[in-house]
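Look at one such:
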Amino acid sequence: MSRIGRSPIAVPAGVTIVIEGQTVRVSGPLGELSRTLPYPIRVRQEEAQILVERPTDSSTNRSLHGLSRTLVANMVTGVTTGFRRELELQGVGYRAALQGTDLQLSLGYSHPIRMTPAAGIKVEVPEPTRIAVSGTDKESVGQLAARIRSTRPPEPYKGKGVRYRGEIVRRKAGKSGKGAKG
């Protein structure tokens, strides 16, 4: 059995879980999330924990077992503590600002880039060179952070661009021979 899929999910106090067939709804202090799990996987609740089970040991069921358990565990974590991704901007003149709920990025292009976060996702700009994306749905938070990063990914020569906080960018050496004659 899958080690991840086999482990039970603890349900903290203040979180309610409703299982209707293949749909799992989790509500807690930060909001409510719902997800429909793939057919052969079964979810059941025993006291203060959730168990995810698979019917057979076929390769499809094995691959869906751990995935389904992780998705439900992320829903429980999301409604209790939430998820947060931080990004940094590095480069001369690169900055971010909030206009209402929209994020406006100046990244060296001829125009500013505007992004509107999805419902339930909160964007903060504590400094002009730092962006924090937070919300209850891990997938949506990660997707928005990846979209922001993809507007100007860090380049390997000077390291300029948008990167995740703590991300290490491997730097390349530039040209070594100035004016070398052949």
Observations:
- The longest strand covers residues 83-90.
- The two ends are 64 Å apart (CA to CA).
- The chain has three helices and 13 strands.
- The first helix runs from residue 3 to 6.
